[in-house]
Amino acid sequence: MTTVATNTSTAATVEREGRGAGHYIKLVLSYGVLFLLAAAFIYPFLLAIGTSFKTLPEINQTPVSIIPREFTLEGYQRLFSFNVGRWTINSAIVAVLITLGNVFFASLAGYALARIPFPGSRVAFLAILGTMMIPGIVLIIPMFIILKTLGMINSYTGLIIPKIITAFGIFLMKQFFESVPRELEEAARIDGATQFQTFFRVVLPTARPALVALIIFSFQGAWNDFMHPLIVVTTNKDLYTLPLGLALLRGGMGQNLQWNSLMAGSMLTTVPMAIIFFIFQRYFIEGISYSGIKG
Amino acid sequence: MAAATGVKGEDRERAIAGWLFMSPTLLIFGVFIIIPILFALYFSLTDWNGISPPGEANFIGLKNFQELLIGGGIRQADFFKALKNTTYFALGVVPAQTALSLLLAVIVNQAWLRFKGFFRTTYYFPSITSSIAISLMFLFFYQKSGLINQVLGSLTFGRWEPIAWMADPRGLFHIILEALGVTIQNAPDFVKTEVLGLTIWDWISGPSIALMAIMIMNTWTTIGTMMVIFLAALQNVPGFVYEAAQIDGANAWTQFRRITLPLLRPTLFFVVTLGLIGTYQVFDQIYVMSGGGPAKTTLTVAYLVYRSGFTNSDMGMAAAIAILLFIIIFTLTMIQRRITGSEADA
To answer: Residues 291..320 of B with a Cβ closer than 8 Å to A: which?
Structure first.
């Protein structure tokens, strides 16, 4: 942030000392590119929202308009007749439990790797690092095999348990705990606290910023996840999550796509994440800059 | 170190605490990652269909791999078709998203720029949106009567002929060759030679219109994440470096090439790696938007894994393809590491 401030004053000086025309061209070009692109990012979402409130005949009329001529809830009504309420609840349950699991277990593991010099910690660390190298898609077949062996196909446990700890979460927390001053723990240890007491009473309370980032990324990952539910839920429609239900709904419609319902479903999936994003924006950006990895 | 207090009890407490803290992780990772991978290695050598009890699968040695790589049948053709499509996908998307996000980051990082927060939020937003929701939105926009054709129509003053993006299997390079007068009919005979299950003519098709549609969408979705990563790195470049360069009379381009780019090298490496790993796994979008069609031109390796295992009930084959995909991604990452920078340890 200080860097930015320094930059500002420098640029202002240079500007005042005159590189007049060149500077204005740069200004117009930069804002031009940025606003045009911003429109290309915002307009699709507005059109999707507008379309979700249109009647089917109006949807393919040209020219496109984001504001429905005839406002209707038809798309949403049809969507809810497909049990989308249940999908939403499932998504929420799964995302919340996975997030809680990640927060708890990743903190424990992250702390152990950062601060407890236990025998074998290096091996454990490298093993976790290794799992991060394996692309998610490569794991769907092994995941299916083990879930089938354990009888966890078509169950909430199958949806939740395998995702309850992520290597990403462990790394985030490990990195954070390494930055906590050691004096804090040493004081607690001198007072006779055990490792567990030190962790829960002294160290964990300082981890709020990292925990918020972890909560956000875990929730986002679980809420938007498609591949894992697709593998786990093969027959039981009562276990569909929003992305899974939506994708299969689209498949079930064949060539006759009812766009207002599909856009309504997309918005239903997007809006809860959008609300969380706008509230915790700062943490999203900080989290991603700090870890560089998308949840 | 701290252990110098020398109390044996403390060492033991540490070991117990360490392993206890780690135990949930070890359990979950062991059961849901490590053991399954060993299983998958085994099942890739069987003919398991994924439905019958795994114990009934027959051990068939390397037959799955042999069919995929040198079999000469439809499986080999499909595998290399998928590999070709995925590679075109990566070759298009990775440079595009890297260059665009770097450009945006440099512009948004300008000190005099206002509405920074707005731009950053706007560009990042698609990154937090469900891939399924975005795929459905773009499926709608890519219709013949949809948004994309209309925008192209108004940009060209009506000269744009609307195309059904997702139904168009024509390859980009084939279209260009045709415009230059080269078609499969008049092309030299050697293009009909089969290499790894596909003719040379097929290999050089370029991405199909349908695949390009998905590539454009994918770039649109990921630019924001990459931009934020670049921005974080740019903010670590101290302002005085540019100040000094300005005094020396360096213009904006020179500053970018001589200061920004070298300092961003590790980040660049990181972004390209992320991009490669991401594009070689593209799946959700294919599932929702095309199912691998038209004419298998959007069939990707990741989608082929799923299709073999779950649609065609050939779980052994799917496991084999998954293993090959892992080897491909791993190799690419290593090669890329060699090229973009040995000292760039991201």
So the answer is: 302, 305-306, 309-310, 315, 318-319
pLDDT, tens digit (0-9, with 9 covering 90-100), for A111-134:
999 988 888 888 888 888 888 878
Measure the CA–CA gap between A12 and A9, rounded to whole angstroms.
5
* CATH number for the segment(s) B72-171+206-340: 1.10.3720.10
E strands within B87-230? 194-195, 198-199
Question: What residues are paired with B171 via a beta bridge?
Answer: B208
Q: How far apart are CA B52 and CA A258, in angstroms?
A: 37
Query: Which residues in chain A have their CB less than 8 angstroms from residue B221's CB?
Result: none
Q: How confident is the model at residue B344 (pLDDT cuts 50, 70, 90)?
A: very low
Residue A162's alpha-carbon distances to A98, A149, A165, B26, B40, in angstroms, are 9, 14, 7, 12, 16
Task: Tell me how far apart the alpha carbons of residues B304 and B318 are, in angstroms, rounded to a whole number.
Answer: 8
Does B24 contact chain A (CB < 8 Å)? yes
Give the other-Cβ count within 10 Å of A247's Cβ. 24
pLDDT value, residue A291: 53
d(CA B186, nearest CA chain A) in Å = 37
- Specify the domain boundaries for CATH 1.10.3720.10 within chain A: 82-291
Distance of CA A58 to the CA centre of its chain: 34
Chain B contact for A97 (CB, 8 A cutoff): no
Structural tokens at position B232: 């974080």
Predicted confidence at residue B210, as pLDDT, reads: 97
SS3 assignment, position A278: helix
Q: What share of chain B is helix, strand, coil (3-state, %, to 5)?
A: 70, 0, 25
ipTM of the shown complex: 0.88
A224 touches chain B (CB under 8 A): yes
Say whether residue A19 is in contact with chain B using an 8 A CB cutoff: no
B178 to chain A, any CB pair closer than 8 A? The answer is: no
Count, residues in chain A: 295
3-state secondary structure of A192: coil
Count CA atoms within 13 Å of residue A25 on its CB side.
Answer: 5
Closest chain A residue to the Cα of B39, Cα to Cα? A142
Say how many residues make up chain B: 346
CATH architecture of A82-291: Orthogonal Bundle (1.10)
Q: Which residues contact B179 (CB under 8 A, 6 or more apart)?
A: none
How far apart are alpha carbons A127 and B160 in whole angstroms? 54
Kindly state the tokens that stand for B71.
């079999």
CA gap A21, A30 in Å, rounded: 14
Domain range summary for chain B, segments of one domain joined by +: 2-65, 72-171+206-340
